[in-house]
């Protein structure tokens, strides 16, 4: 009989040209049988329920829709004797995928270019005499360029260095306004058009009755269960869904992400994609000192021929609209690939059970002797070829764990 394990390089080369084919061996062992069928059941269930039904592996999919977002803020607020409308509190006025609304303002009136006292918290700003202040020095944490004089800090008793800047400085002259509590009832209209180029479909439905649609869109208010297709969102609802306290947001401002997720199953209805909305605060957590959102802008005017401005530090809620999407449609190629993968994966059961059989159950090595088998011309020439397809003791190769 031939040597079972050729060890020389020539032997390796020769065994490379041997043909290996699996043989079916039936093991009459109840434990192994139960393990084998259970593993098989798990693998098949996984593929049917998870891969095919839940993950829709029979579909060709696209996850990057082209997206365009238009936003519009609505609502009015009473502020003292004034009425604030959307032009005053919404930024930018041309609503894109980022829109913010002012919740609280800190206003510095009547600033103009001139000289005045620097704020006392700026480094080296406290002084007692002119020589304490360096002329022409610019502190980047300060407000302007020093003139070299030491002056009284507005109507207080101590002195600071004088600067050339927009005067008076914000810290001294600022007027803090109360929060716009009405903003909780402002609404933001979010129109999101998407298009999946691979399937040439988008979400733009042509409404059968355009006027009714317009009326509906103007009046409705989004609610997860009651009005899932309405694109008007109350700011209070957004803050609530983002688990933020609106009173607290009015104080610090904040950035909230509006996540729109489109799920389009094009096998069911090619034009009906359902959006789901999620809201999450994006700036640093509220317990950290530097979280929040504010920006400054100014309104300019001329007073006695001098250019003046009203500086406004605006704390607001900023909405970042972030769009995700997934569209899937039946296609033969992914179906074939997934099916083949599923069928191949059933082979895992055999590998697992072989391993269990050879490692744990096969105490007296009966199975491993039977499992590895060599057939050569020498066997086939013998008078009982059928019988010799099963090896005798000396023809079986040694298994590694021996
Ligand atoms: C400057 O003086 C004021 C008033 O005496 C004081 O409150 C402030 O802390 C001083 N600033 C610095 C930077 O020391
Ligand atoms: C400075 O003037 C403002 C307004 O004119 C006043 O409210 C404030 O009490 C004055 N401060 C001092 C220290 O006098
Ligand atoms: C917001 O609207 C509700 C219902 O319309 C009203 O009860 C509530 O007082 C309003 N809140 C503010 C701050 O105006
Ligand atoms: C929101 O915050 C304010 C002030 O921090 C607090 O008075 C109020 O009870 C809070 N509201 C809720 C619903 O937690």
Structural class: alpha+beta
Q: What is the straight-line distance between the termini?
A: 21 Å
What CATH architecture of the largest domain do you see? Sandwich
Q: Could you name the CATH class of the largest domain?
A: Mainly Beta
Task: Quote the CATH topology of the largest domain.
Answer: atp-gated p2x4 ion channel fold
Name of the CATH homologous superfamily of the largest domain: atp-gated p2x4 ion channel domain
Question: What level of helicity do the residues show?
Answer: 25-40%
Shape: elongated
Q: How many helices? A: 12
- Main pleated sheet: 10 strands, mixed
Question: Could you explain how this protein is built, in words?
Answer:
The chain has 402 residues and is an alpha+beta fold. The protein folds into three domains: 18-59 and 331-395, atp-gated p2x4 ion channel (Helix Hairpins, Orthogonal Bundle); 66-109 and 175-329, atp-gated p2x4 ion channel fold (Sandwich), CATH 2.60.490.10; 119-168, no CATH class. It has helices spanning 9-16, 30-54, 86-89, 170-173, 210-219, 235-241, 246-252, 332-345, 347-361, 366-371, 377-380, 385-388, and strands spanning 59-62, 66-74, 77-79, 82-84, 90-91, 98-117, 145-152, 159-167, 175-176, 187-196, 201-202, 232-234, 254-265, 274-281, 294-303, 306-330. The strands form three sheets. Strands 1, 5, 6, 7, 8, 9, 13, 14, 15 and 16 form a ten-stranded mixed β-sheet that branches. Helix 2 (30-54) packs antiparallel against helix 9. The radius of gyration is 38 Å and the shape is elongated. It starts with 8 loop residues before the first helix and ends in a 14-residue tail after the last helix. The relative contact order is 0.16. The model is unreliable at 387-396 (pLDDT under 50). One 2-acetamido-2-deoxy-beta-D-glucopyranose (NAG) binds at residues 120-121, 126, 158.
């Amino acid at each position: 009989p031939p040597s079972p394990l050729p060890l020389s390089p020539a032997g390796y080369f020769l065994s490379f040209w041997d043909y290996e084919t699996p043989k079916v061996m039936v093991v009459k062992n109840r434990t192994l049988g139960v393990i084998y069928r259970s593993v098989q059941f798990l693998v098949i269930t996984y593929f049917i329920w998870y891969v095919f039904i839940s993950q829709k592996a029979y579909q060709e999919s696209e996850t990057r829709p082209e997206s365009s977002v238009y936003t519009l803020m609505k609502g009015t607020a009473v502020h003292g004797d004034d009425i604030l409308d959307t032009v005053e509190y919404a930024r930018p006025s041309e609503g894109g995928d980022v829109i913010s609304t002012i919740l609280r303002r800190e206003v510095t009136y009547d600033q103009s270019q001139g000289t005045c006292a620097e704020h006392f918290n700026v480094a080296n700003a406290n002084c007692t005499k002119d020589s304490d202040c360096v002329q022409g020095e610019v502190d980047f944490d300060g407000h302007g360029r020093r003139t070299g004089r030491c002056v009284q800090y507005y109507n207080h008793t101590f002195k600071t260095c004088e600067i050339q800047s927009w005067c008076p400085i914000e810290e001294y002259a600022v007027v803090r306004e109360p929060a716009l509590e009405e903003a909780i009832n402002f609404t933001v209209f979010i129109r999101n058009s998407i298009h999946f180029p691979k399937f040439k479909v988008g979400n733009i439905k042509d409404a059968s009755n355009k006027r009714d649609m317009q009326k509906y869109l103007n009046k409705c208010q989004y609610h997860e269960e009651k009005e899932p297709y309405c694109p008007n969102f109350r700011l209070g609802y957004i803050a609530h869904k983002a688990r933020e306290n609106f009173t607290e947001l009015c104080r610090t401002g904040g950035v909230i992400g509006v996540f729109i997720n489109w799920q389009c199953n094009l096998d069911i209805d090619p034009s009906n994609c359902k959006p789901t909305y999620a809201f999450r605060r994006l700036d640093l957590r509220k317990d950290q000192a530097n979280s929040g959102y504010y920006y400054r802008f100014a309104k300019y005017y001329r007073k006695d021929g001098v250019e003046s401005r009203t500086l406004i530090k605006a704390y607001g809620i900023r909405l970042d609209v972030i769009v995700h999407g997934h569209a899937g449609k039946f296609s033969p190629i992914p179906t074939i690939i997934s099916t083949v993968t599923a069928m191949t994966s059933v082979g895992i059961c055999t590998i697992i059970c072989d391993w269990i059989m050879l490692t744990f159950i096969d105490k007296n090595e009966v199975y491993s002797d039977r499992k590895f088998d060599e057939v050569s011309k020498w066997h086939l020439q013998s008078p009982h070829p059928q019988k010799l397809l099963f090896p005798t003791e000396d023809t079986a190769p040694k298994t590694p764990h021996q």
